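Subgroup meeting minutes
Present: P.N., E.W., G.H.
Scribe: E.W.

1. P.N. recapped why we're keeping a running log of single-chain structure predictions: easier to compare across weeks, and new members can see raw inputs and outputs side by side.
2. G.H. added today's entry (71 aa).
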Amino acid sequence: ARASLSRRLRAMDLEQRFRQSQRDWVNQRDVECRGSGDGALWARERARCLGDRSTQRASELQRNLNSLRGQ
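Output recorded in log:
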């Protein structure tokens, strides 16, 4: 029972750290993309920046997950 509780606490800590990491990443992405695009097409450029950063993050997370799984 004690080992099970310890595993659950570690899992909860890992989840909290992951969520904070995601929040930090979203904030950084928004800062990086805020200056994207000028003029009439600013929204298109910002959307492209947000999409590119999100694609990069998804790849990064997949690599991390694969590493944890030993792949």
